[in-house]
Amino acid sequence: MIQMGRGISRHLFSNRHLPDTRPMYHRVYFANLWNRMSPKGQKTFQWDLVRGVCDGTGNTLHTTFALLVAIEFFRLPDGYKALIASGTSVGMGISFLYATYAHCLIGRRNVEAAIPVFLSSVCFVAASLAQDGITFAFLAFIGHVLFMIRFPLMTQIYRENYRRENRGQAFGFSVLVASVGSILMVRLGGLYLDGGMERYRTLYQIIAALVFCGSFAILRIPSDKTPRQSFPNPFNYFSILAKDRAFCYILFVWSVFGFANLMMIPQRLEYVTQDRYGLSLNPGMVALIVGAIPELVKILLVIPMGWLFDRMNFIVLRIVINIFFGLYMLVYFHATSIPMLAFGSVLLGVSFAGGTISWNLWVTKFAIPSETAKYMAMHTFFNGIRGVLAPVAGYIIASTDSIQTASDYSVGLMFVSCLMLAPLIPKGAPFDRQNRLEEG
Q1: Other beta carbons within 10 Å of 268
Q2: What are the tens digits of pLDDT across the range 70-96?
Q3: CA gap 412, 416 in Å, rounded
């Protein structure tokens, strides 16, 4: 079966079958990208596309459906909703511990990354069977932690398997298919839940099955076996902050705009579902506004964003992305109609297209290849800290004042982060294309 899959992929990705005409430019571009990859990169690309589709459906749980079930079915208080929203951030926060000890015990990045994804699918099945809201919240939380804990390992795999000149574009295709999977699941899942929120159990089980398939796809991505090592002190990773001052500064600035973004993520659902904000949309419309529209825009723009990531000054690109995040907050959380909400979601989709590429790959612009997993572990650690605190801050400000006030604070933080990044524009990142540093 695997041999047959290889034969099909050679047929699909071969230049022979693609006419060199303007209408078929996108296919020629795809074939050229494929031909510029190493054999290891080509195999990585194939299986990462499968992983992307499965991850896209899995992402809908923590971006849309988990909070929707908590709000509409279990009527959970804000504390439990914040717990669910923080699960992905906790997973990123402790990922440096997992990356350290799993690599010492297993020594193969793909296996290390696949195990927690498989375990997360088990948690999602268990959450679908929960009989009370508190049990559901804790199982959803653990599932989200496990789903996100593998990210430093995946970034290391991309650094090792993809060449620098096409890494962003190759990963962009994975993001694209993930967005397709997400938008289909959000739309179909939302329509399915329109028939009754009790149907979430079946929906959760379908998504869990796809997450399980994603763990198998990760296992098929090439990764070299390394000798087992004695257990190091994972907190030695923090020495990177003293050695690389530029990276440390970027992490600090990232914490500023990251806090602003994460503070408002759960509020997107609250704003369109709660009666007190005057909208109170049905589940299908919520899924369209919160999930489908941003993902559709991301599908359209993620490949161009990957191309820009490979070629553009990274600091300039990050500033542009932050500006779009700020515009989305201004429009979405001050919206009084569905068209305004939709326009805000479009701006968010533009932000997501660039933000997803830069979030997953930006450390490859600063770290030497052998240090990539360590740099990414530091990035996810601090992302985890702010991801736990930011949703709580968002709920506190929204409940004591208003969602509009919380969004205004977030816009201010976005603006400050742009000012903080501006002095770095002339130098860019060490591994920006114009700096011509060699990897390895």
Answers
A1: 26
A2: 988 999 987 888 788 888 888 988 888
A3: 6
Q: What share of the chain is helix, strand, coil (3-state, %, to 5)?
A: 85, 0, 15
Q: Per residue in 241-263, pLDDT tens?
A: 888 888 999 999 999 999 999 89
CA distance linking residue 354 with residue 303, whole number of Å: 9
- C-alpha separations of 275 from 115, 200, 267, 272 in Å: 41, 22, 14, 8
- Alpha carbons 439 and 319: distance in angstroms, whole number: 25
Query: 3-state DSSP call for residue 128?
Result: helix
CATH architecture of the region 41-223+239-435: Up-down Bundle (1.20)
Handedness of CA 40, 230, 242, 94 (dihedral sign): positive
The closest of 360, 349, 357 to 383, measured between CA atoms, is 360
Are 306 and 101 in contact by the 8 Å Cβ rule? The answer is: no
From residue 113, alpha-carbon distances to 22, 153, 222, 232 in Å are 40, 6, 12, 19
How many other β-carbons are positioned within 10 Å of the β-carbon of residue 75? 8
Encoded tokens for 158: 């991309």
User: Which whole number is the average pLDDT over 254-276?
Assistant: 88
* 8 A C-beta contact, residue 369 and residue 439: yes
Give the phi and the psi of residue 281 in degrees, each rounded to 5: -75, 155
